[in-house]
């Protein structure tokens, strides 16, 4: 039986929190991360990115596929304070045999590694760390968090996303293929052990899942446990 994640908020933090965000549904099969950035940008910068979407993405070098470090450079472009936490600096060498990454590594690997190397002098804050759930929940008082997850492990108590497969895995565990997908964490309910998040795959809605489901989805092999802590 999996041990439940334990957490306790800092003194003074609310027992329940919901950050109001403008929702943006992704337009393509590769722009979930950029859609998450749109959700956390101030209105003026959001309007600029929407008006010049293709131009900005191409200038940033990631039109067609994005990595978490790309999202950080995009946030930096619009002067949004943030910290990027990951367990892997650069492209994980083990992903070359992964079906999800295999088709994009050839064109992305050099660019992604270069962006990591240039991050410090470019003003992009990167911390090599496995971020505990406690830190993420504490951070939400200061702003949302963009989290890389395995989409196949996401669930929602409201729209019943992946509900059947989630229940089946509890009875008959089986390996779950990786499908990278970004979501925005925007709140929690401590007593219920739930987190609120916005999923750019869907139209405007707030999804709800357990903290244990979040932990499984964000720590799945392939995510590098990437988290961007955004400061409002």
Number of strands: 8
> Number of helical segments?
9
Strand content: 15-25%
Shape, principal axes of CA atoms: globular
- Uncertain regions: pLDDT < 50 for 5+ in a row? none
Order of helices and strands: EHHHHEHHEHEHEEEHE
For the largest beta-sheet, the strand count, sense and barrel status come to: 8 strands, mixed
Mean of residue pLDDT values: 89
Query: Compute the gyration radius: what is it?
Result: 17 Å
Terminus-to-terminus distance: 38 Å
- The assigned structural class equals alpha+beta
Tell me about this structure.
The chain has 232 residues and is of the alpha+beta class. It is 36% helix and 17% strand. Strands 1, 2, 3, 4, 5, 6, 7 and 8 form an 8-stranded mixed β-sheet that branches. A hairpin with an 8-residue loop joins strand 6 and strand 7. The longest helix has 19 residues.
